[in-house]
């Protein structure tokens, strides 16, 4: 992982305005950051295909196995990078350790809901959760941080609420999978921001999965006593894919961390839609999930809300950059 002094500095201030201090960042780092970000989100976008390949493993066994092998893979990374000492310092710091336990609980809910949706033919609704996640994050900023939104941001939130209502009426029920995914991941991001740069990607995932290990073991025991475990009983390839859940969980996270150190937040904001777009296309074109008119209308409203929010974010970043340039030009 590159040193923290390499990337452009990014400030996020109240109201959602983004300030980017570009500094002297070589173009080579920008291109590598772009490659890291695109690769991370493409990998996240391909997760439905990966999870479907491990059939007949059910969602409870799959998530439990994912927790265990993510922890083992992170332990390997900590060993290779000789980072156990700083990790144990974080582990014995109560504020950080318990904060990461809460983050672990939220990501567990997110993983379990997502895998349940994918394995039950609801990939499109799962993609909706990650489409509306940026809007939910804005809403959480108002609720938890008392941030004041600009009019255009309120318009984006309003359009997204209308979209959920349209989808609920069209489906005859609330899109719970999408809402749980959006809010669990939004809250997860909020909790992670509380620990800030003190916890890097590997240490964070290690702490989260350490707290989740007893839950994963109990879940495996429950599956074993009821439907029976599939790991090690289907084929060597199937077992390898289950073991690989640790890798496919940690690697995109590390790529994302590397990208976020090199790219301005606005760039990351654009690229984050790669994953739900891939998931949506996979659900519609490959799995042939139903897309009645009201569902298209609901998704169109969500995409409109995202366009409004993204354009406002980009405009805010430009205004901040202009203001900083003017301030720099008036210095003696």
Outline the secondary-structure elements:
Blueprint: E1 9-12, E2 18-21, H1 27-45, H2 47-53, H3 59-80, H4 84-91, H5 94-119, H6 123-145, H7 151-171, H8 176-195, H9 201-225, H10 236-243, H11 245-260, H12 265-271, H13 274-286, H14 293-329
Antiparallel strand pairs: 1-2
Structure, briefly:
This is Chloramphenicol-sensitive protein RarD. The chain is mainly alpha-helical and 332 residues long.
Structural class: mainly alpha
Largest pleated sheet: 2 strands, antiparallel
- Find the count of extended strands (DSSP E, 2+ residues): 2
> Which strand order spans the largest sheet, edge to edge or round the barrel?
1-2
Quickly count the domains: 1
Low-confidence stretches: 1-29
Instruction: Name the helix and strand elements from N-terminus to C-terminus, one letter apiece.
Output: EEHHHHHHHHHHHHHH
**Termini separation (Å)?**
37 Å
In helices, the fraction of residues equals over 70%
Question: How large is the radius of gyration?
Answer: 21 Å
- Give the strand content: under 5%
- Number of distinct helices: 14
The average pLDDT score comes to 83
Silhouette:
globular
List keywords for this structure.
332 residues, disordered N terminus, globular, transmembrane, EamA_dom, 2 strands
């Amino acid at each position: 992982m590159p040193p923290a002094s390499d990337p452009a500095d990014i400030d996020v201030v109240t109201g959602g305005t983004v300030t980017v201090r570009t500094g002297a960042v070589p173009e080579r780092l920008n291109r590598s950051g772009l490659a890291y970000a695109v690769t991370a989100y493409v990998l996240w976008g391909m997760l439905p295909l990966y999870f479907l390949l491990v059939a007949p493993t059910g969602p409870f066994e799959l998530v439990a196995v994912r927790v265990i092998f993510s922890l083992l893979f992170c332990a390997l990374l900590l060993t290779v990078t000789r980072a156990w000492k700083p990790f144990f310092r974080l582990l014995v710091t109560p504020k950080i350790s318990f904060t990461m336990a809460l983050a672990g609980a939220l990501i567990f809910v997110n993983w379990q809901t997502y895998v349940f949706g994918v394995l039950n033919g609801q990939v499109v609704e799962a993609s909706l959760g990650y489409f509306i996640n940026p809007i939910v994050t804005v809403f959480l900023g108002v609720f938890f941080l008392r941030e004041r939104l600009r009019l255009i941001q309120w318009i984006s939130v309003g359009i997204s609420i209308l979209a959920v209502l349209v989808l609920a009426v069209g489906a005859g029920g609330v899109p719970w999978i999408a809402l749980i995914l959006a809010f669990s991941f939004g809250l997860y991001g909020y909790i992670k921001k509380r620990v800030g740069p003190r916890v890097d990607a590997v240490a964070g995932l290690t702490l989260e999965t350490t707290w989740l290990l007893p839950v994963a073991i109990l879940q495996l025991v429950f599956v074993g006593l009821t439907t029976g475990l599939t790991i090690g009983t289907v084929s060597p390839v199937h077992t390898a894919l289950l073991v690989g859940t640790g890798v496919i969980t940690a690697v995109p996270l590390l790529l994302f961390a590397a990208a976020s150190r090199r790219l301005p937040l606005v760039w990351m904001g654009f690229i984050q839609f790669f994953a739900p777009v891939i998931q949506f296309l996979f659900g519609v074109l490959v799995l042939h999930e139903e897309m009645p008119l009201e569902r298209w209308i609901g998704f169109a409203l969500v995409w409109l809300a995202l366009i409004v929010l993204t354009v406002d974010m980009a405009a805010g970043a430009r205004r901040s950059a202009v203001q900083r340039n003017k301030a720099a030009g008036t210095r003696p």
